[in-house]
Amino acid sequence: MFSDWPSELVPQQGWGDEAAISAFKDAVPWNVGRDFVAGTAKHLASSLGLTKPGPPIRSKIIHDKQLQVLMPALGYGLSFPLSEIDILRDCVSVYCEWLSALLPNPKSSVPAPILSDPNHYARIIINHFYYLFVPRGAQGPDVINRQAVLCHRVLRTLQNIAQNSPCLSEDTWQTLLLFLLHINSALLSPPTVKVSDESEGASTSSLSLNLTGDVAEDAGEQLCERVLSVLFETWLLACARCFPPPPLWNALRESCQRWRHRAGLIDQWNRINFALTGKLISFMYGPSFPEIKFSEDDLNIIPSTMSRDCIAQVWYRILHIIGNPVDLSRHTVISKTPAFLKYAISSELVIEPSQHPCLQMLPAIFLSAMKGVSGLVDAFLGVPNISLENLNQKGHHLSSSSSLSLSSEGRGEDSARLLASGRAKCNSILHLFGPWLFEAALINCNMQASLGPQHKTDGSGSAGSGSRRPVSGFGGESGRKSSDSSVPSEPQNDRLANLSPQHFQGGRAEALGALCRIFCSKKTGEEILPVYLARFYLAVHQGLRQTDSNATAHQEQASFTSNKYQGSKTGVCSETAASILVNGVDLFRLDLQGVVSLVPSVLGVLEGVLPEAEVNAPPHLPVPLLRRAATHVLLSILPLPLHFQGLQVKEVGCSSGERLVLSHLRPQLVNLLSNALQVETDPANTQMLLGGLLFCVQDAALCEVMDSISQHNFSSDRDHNIMSSGASDTVSSHGDYNSLLDDSCETLPVGDSLGPVGSSGLSSTTSASHATLLSATDTDGPPSFEDPDSAHALFVRAIYLVCHRLISSWKSDVNVSLAGLELLSGLARLSIAEQDGLECKRAVKWLCDYIAYQCSRPARLHSKDLHSTIVAAFHCASVWLVAHPYLLQDKECLGTILEVIELGISGSKSQVKSSDAPRLKHEKELKPASMRVRDSAEALLSCVLSQVGTFPSVCGAESLSSLLDELTLLRHCNTCDVSDQLTRDAAVQHFRYFVAQNSIMLALLEQPLGNHQDPQPTVTALIRGPFGRVAWTMQLRHLARHKSSAKLYTVNPGRPLPMNDVGIKHNVKPKYFPDSVERIPLCKADKSIPSLESVIMVDEKSAIEHDKLLQILDHQIAFEDNIRRQVEREITDYPDVETECVAPPLCHEFQTARLLLSHFGFLSLDALQESVESAVPSLVALDSSMAGFAKDLELLDTTNNRTVDTGHVFYVRAGQTNPHDILNNVVSVSSVHPHFLEFLGGLGWSVNVHQHPGWTGHVSTAFTVTTPPQDAPLDSNHGGSVFSGRTHVLYWSDALSEMAFVVPSPALSQPNSQPAASNSVNMGLVLERCDGSGGGSGSERSDSLHSYDVEVDQGSSLSSHTSQMSFGHGNENRNRKFGRQTSAMSCGDHKVYIVWLESFEDSYTFPAIDLLNETITGRESSSWKDKEACIYIIFIHALTNGLFRIKLQGQNAKLSMAGPLIDGQVVSRRVLGTLVRQTALNMCRRKRLESDSYQPPHVRRKLRIQEMVQKYRYEMTEPEFYSHLFTSPLC
Questions:
Q1: Prediction pTM value
Q2: For the residues of 1186-1239, what is the DSSP string, one character each?
Q3: Suppose 1281 and one of 903, 906, 1226, 1432 were both cysteines; which one would form an S-S bond, judging by CB atoms 3.0 to 4.6 Å apart?
Q4: Could you write out the DSSP letters of every residue in 396-465?
Q5: DSSP letter at 1390?
Q6: Radius of gyration from C-alpha coordinates of the chain
Q7: Number of helices and strands (H, E) in the chain?
């Protein structure tokens, strides 16, 4: 930089007014001169008032000539040996007081000549101070300390003058700076020796070797930090007030290069660089850019008066003031100074200057310099919380700028890893620091074998030209130094045995880490110069391949040849490789051109880290952190082999030209993943590996399906020839098939390699993979083509590995257990053509064993987390049984399932061992592990009985319940006059309502449904239970239906013949009393009852009543006589030839409800009475005529029996932050990515919200079928806006869950459009609270529902499903369902966003809170707006290579690290939709598991039924209940 300027740093012998002092010293003898100086100094010091009390005495020195005599004497006194410490102290005191003349308020003791010309005399004093700092040779530590005290005083005085003096001239500034340069050179230029003092626990002790070779205490080491800090701080002051000329800058640069063996120089260099960089960044990038944190001492190190141009100039010059920092790794360069050469000449111990023991500190100094450069890189990248203290405290600077946090929990706040959006481009940073970093990253690397001519330098330039934009080489001197002196010669290595290249691996690792962070900071669409990419790949390759510093070049070459693509499984990770892994986790997640060439090198390092239980990692780096970084890298390269099947890669540094087919690395990746899972103990790392394992299996399964489909497009004859020739020549068939695959892959473009098949339509495909097709041909040869990494093989390995680890190691960790169970659920849903039923049975058996083990743990270990794992295991078992219904046909599997269900419900098994006698139900105590566990077991039992083998039902996957209700049934009832305007309130009057077992509601209709041809006692039952609604029609038949249709009698049996002989009829009149009753005499007791006549005669009232009774008797006698005569007439006339035998008329009226209840045993007295266990009888009648009954019945029907969740999909174009702009993107297909609509199709299938009986994303349209409005036809050119929820949504469901995916669009916020917020009219929304609070130990849910009224501001601009539907479509609302709509209204306050990003940087500025208005589903609690919304975001960024980068945000809760997607993972296009949907579902399930107040769907339905029992129960006695059964409902 200043090589053309001469240096003003004159030799030390000519500095310090040497001529005047020498003349004084030569004029008188030593003793006389000493006494004169001592007396003069003591006299002058006594007048200062420092040693005696009182004010200072005014100086009597009034002439310049007096000073011309005194000042040489004082200067001579400053050169006295340290034994004359008193004289030195007096001289220092006098001079320090006299320098106050430069201050605004000088001391009174300052001589008048100095006051009149302070700058002239100040320069003389400053020159004389030089003698105080000159080392005195061998001295004791006490004497050295005394000298240091005086030096500190002088430095404080000079620093005070520089800061506060208003009259410093330009010459004085230059003299001051030269003085500081000279004293630093005098103290710091000589070499030092570090001697370890381990016995006393001291870190190091410093010894200085003086020029005579005698060992002495080093004053320079003691004063190093102080003199350097004063030098740089004063230099900065001079730059602000009197900018130093180029010769001074050249002197500073040359001096600093002579002091580079001092660690203090690099510390001060870093300190000043950080301070200047902080100021530079503040005005270059603005106040929003992250600031560098400074200590209190460094806050004001930069003068406030320094201009921006001056700061920029000084920053750049100071940055290059020590030359090339990589020279610190070359002891031969550092020792090329006059001081080292003089020491080598005068010393008998050292022959070469490079042999000096002080050079042993160079590795630490080099590391400190690289840390400083690395910190500057982070500052320009915008990494927050960068400070010099943090840089010095930790080891290597970890990846704080990475897109993923490598904290102990595997997650962290985004603010801790966010890079500034306005950061500098990678090329700009590389222009500044690239030459140093690349050179440091390649030290001790033999590049001759791998570098071509393009890597050689041209020999021009200098070490200070780091800012020039390179064209092809490192440029100039730095390039020559890299090739010439990076590897010392053998004689030097032998002589300097204590300093090997391995000692500099720390600084090299720091440089590699900084380079990785620079390239990982690449923005979307940013271009990096190819020359930088090439150098970076070369540096990374060299950093990864060096694992053992003691290995020779021959051994390294042999290892590289033999393990070219296999890596070294030594369990050792070098410092450089660890730095690359930790700081380069994003390398394969970016669109870096040609980065796949690093895959073989990275894979070799991963095999030394992940599959080994113990890793010999650098001491400053925790092994779990290293393994986490390696796992991130592994997850980012997992999709590459199948995505680039035919791609041939040439490994970096390989000069043979051999290429590797990337797909051949897949078995190695799969083995690496499975082996890592077997030894991993960190929970966060394990969950990441589980996510990668599920991705591998799903990706392989879909890839095989698509390969089998694409093979039909090739020539069938060629395929036949390949497979038929395998028996005779397996090798040739193998090669032919590979060539076929290679040819097919090469013809497919990268972006369209998937073909026309989408991920959503592959679940039912049963075609086998190519590996399976060819496996039968290789029966005789050893190379079987049954790939161990095929979908089936991976499926089996994953089941075995996860189930085994789940029971053996993961059962005590809730997060890992949940992740393992989620993986098993994902495996259960896979459609693999050759699935092994035995493996599926084994998986279910393992799940049951896991549940049994968790339930059997001691009571003190039972907690909420433990029960959450049991609940998740029950859910996983349900998924397996629904997906594989044939498992229940196995007797052993069915028995195992029922046993674990019994364990969950009752808390114990009836038969622990097969030899034990089973215990009956009434003999066991009902004591489940918790209510949550019991509810989950009940849900599994219901799934086994009603869903396994029958899902989806005839109603479709959209509904598990029957779509029939009271209105529909009455419209099909011919005996009732039903109008079209029939309301629900009127319909329920035709039904009888009963509740059995306090959990099942029976709605019984006793009218036949259009059944006149075969009239039978008919009852239609709507059965509403905890698990849904079903409709049954039952008839009372004496014969089976197939038998009752056959006539058992002839059509015309004929007239029967009359029977005249009917026998003899005897008319006998019965007697009620014997004939002798009149003859029995009466006794007194008989006479005690008066006769009727006597009573009538006495009482007139009795006589009147007697007359009335006689009239009644006469009327009855006449009626009976009439009837008797009719009977006698009929009997008399029979037989009559005119009378025909007529069949009795059919009975059309039955109490079928009574018959049904009686046949099921509900009408016994015990069933109608309250019991000890329950205050509600087994059968209760409900009064359907009460107000509100129909509404509550409707609420029960809309309480779904599955969990419902909603995902909102957004598309964000590059740079967008405005919500309105984001919503407008999906209006047109031209505004979205070509694969966006395909991705939407992978999330679910399209449904019409008006005709869809399931969940639609909002309560106003969910669970009801209505007439769609007459809207305009759908635009086929949409970009996803059709799925906004106004007419259509994307829907997915299984037997346990429902999920709707809504793509909000601007149409939702327009008038007369589909609503998205709650209605301002009081609709009585009843929502369950979900606090989402974790923690607690086994706290169970409440047994009652929490009700809240949703109140939404009418003036809100939110687009609202409910409000717009209420006011925008008129009469359409009559068929809408309002009120409490869904069963899964709990946990409604959390949101799931799925955001497609064109630019990955937009993930940090995505307006999630502003878009909450577009995501209202009606399930939110009343206070959800008042608290911080829980938002889970899945960001999807499409890379240019056809893969997709995933970023997860919001998973900060205890159980919220849901899979299978992992933060930072890279996935393929074929599995994107499936994995995103599974992750969104698992996020919602984790949230429900974490909530204390969550209630499963069947529990909410059961509680709803119990609420209706309390409100509408008939309070009747048993006789009244029986009488009620004979009354007919309204018809």
A1: 0.78
A2: STTHHHHHHHHHTS-SSEEEEEEEEEE-TT---HHHHHHGGGSGGGS-TTHHHH
A3: 1226
A4: S---TTSSS--STTS---GGGTPPPTTPPPHHHHHHHHHHHHHHHHTTT---TTT--GGG---S-S-TT-
A5: E
A6: 48
A7: 51, 18
